[in-house]
Design a protein that fits this description.
Number of helices: 12
Strand order of the largest sheet: 3-4-5-6-9-10-11-12-13-14
Oligomer: single chain
Largest sheet: 10 strands, mixed
CATH topology of the largest domain: TIM Barrel
CATH superfamily of the largest domain: Aldolase class I
Shape: elongated
Bound molecules: S-adenosyl-L-homocysteine, iron/sulfur cluster
């Protein structure tokens, strides 16, 4: 091949994950006016359009140009599972045989989408199946916001004025969101942006195991609601369960959260404290008492999550009595305390069960097959 025949073309830019500012910059780079960005964002996020030819208020010349340099590419759905309780889970192929999962949990007039941020996770919490896989890679902003896009599309929820498929988003799927900082900030920004999904900042929640420096950075650029995975009332126990605590102990984590709340323009913000209850490990009365003392002056509500067992873990879920006892101590101490009910149990959609990359594929698929009444035929979204 002669040198002249080698043509280097840039890969098409995926417009799905672009923020308002990035989209405007992209349009300007094409010699277009920035307002084109608004038109295109509305087509993508309000109307679910992924084909430039459907964008009827964009002139033909620009549509042709866009087709040659850009694309709107949602993540590829490998399978979709529906639980008897209405929970829906999608497995999303992210290349190299890796899979991440997204779950939609309807609850009355709310529907909460649990979104993944990374393929695997490097933080290796002792009770988490994602942690057992190690870290594979960060998801792109398009792959993160694409989980919202495909959930809405799967319920025929575009355009947005017909019905609200997703009312709340929690970054509580696979991965540590603050270790994929830029993409998570871009994607959560799009969730809250009126040109994106227009979800209130109190209904978009980022959950972190406590990457303290990133929390300070987040305070400068985001207004997302915060949840922290505490799981223990003291450093020695927390360091066993959440190894990142050895680097950033509880006092530093709580201080960073206070800073985050103080930096928000609105008042009365609270942090959701997540506490996974593991039988005999952190679920005793004295743990609850110590936790109440620790959080005495911390603006928070507490969410107790009974441990969800998985094959690679010896931990046990606590008894109902143990959960109630823990809840009672905290409630008596004046904390707003909720217990997360397990949803989507029949499709392994519960918190911490989003196994993603199919490491134990045989076991999982065998179980899924035995419950074939809950499985929809594989649906490929391949626009
Ligand atoms: N990496 C982030 C977000 C993803 S995990 C974080 O750690 O906060 C979302 C929540 O599920 C966290 O509170 C996590 O501690 C909890 N979790 C993980 N595995 C679990 C399991 N097996 N049972 C119950 N909760 C679990
Ligand atoms: Fe990572 Fe969160 Fe799992 Fe810990 S609990 S290993 S931070 S995904």
């Amino acid at each position: 091949m002669t040198e002249a025949a080698i043509v280097h073309t840039a890969p098409p830019a995926n417009l799905l994950g672009m923020t308002r500012a990035q989209m405007a910059e992209f349009m300007v780079s094409l010699g277009e006016k920035p307002f084109r960005a608004q038109q295109i964002m509305k087509w993508i996020h309000h109307r679910g359009v992924s084909n430039f030819d459907d964008m009827t208020d964009i002139g033909k010349a620009l549509r042709e140009r866009l087709k040659s340099v850009a694309e709107i590419r949602p993540p590829q759905v490998i399978s979709q599972h529906d639980s008897k309780d209405g929970t829906r889970k999608w497995a999303i192929g992210v290349g190299g045989g890796n899979v991440v999962e997204t779950v939609l949990i309807p609850d009355g007039d709310r529907a909460t989408l649990c979104v993944s941020s990374q393929v695997g996770c490097s933080l290796d919490c002792s009770f988490c199946s994602t942690g057992k896989q190690g870290f594979q890679r960060d998801l792109s902003a398009a792959e993160i916001i694409g989980q919202v896009w495909l959930a809405i599309q799967s319920y025929d929820g575009f355009p947005s004025h017909s019905k609200r498929v997703v009312t709340n988003v929690v970054m509580m799927g696979m991965g540590e969101p603050l270790l994929n900082f830029d993409n998570v900030v871009a994607a959560t920004g799009l969730m809250m942006d009126d040109l994106g999904y227009g979800i209130s900042k109190r209904r978009v929640t980022l959950s972190t195991s406590g990457v303290v420096p990133a929390l300070y950075k987040l305070a400068e650029v985001s207004q997302v609601s915060l949840a922290i995975s505490l799981h223990a009332p003291n450093d020695s126990l927390r360091s066993e369960l959440v190894p990142v605590n050895r680097r950033y102990p509880i006092s530093e984590l709580l201080e960073a959260c206070n800073h985050y709340i103080a930096a928000q323009p609105d008042t009365h913000r609270v942090v959701t404290v997540e506490y996974t209850l593991i039988a005999g490990v952190n679920d005793q009365r004295e743990h609850a008492i110590e936790l109440a003392k620790l959080l005495k002056d911390f603006p928070c509500k507490i969410n107790l999550i009974p441990f969800n067992p998985f094959s690679l873990s010896d931990y046990q879920r606590p008894s109902k009595n143990a959960v109630n006892r823990f809840w009672q101590v905290l409630t008596d101490a004046g904390f707003v305390t909720t217990v997360r009910t397990t949803r989507g149990d029949d499709i392994d959609a519960a918190c911490g069960q989003l196994a993603g990359q199919v490491v134990d594929r045989t076991r999982r698929s065998a179980r899924h097959l035995s419950r074939s009444e809950n499985i929809q035929p594989i649906k490929l979204v391949n626009n």
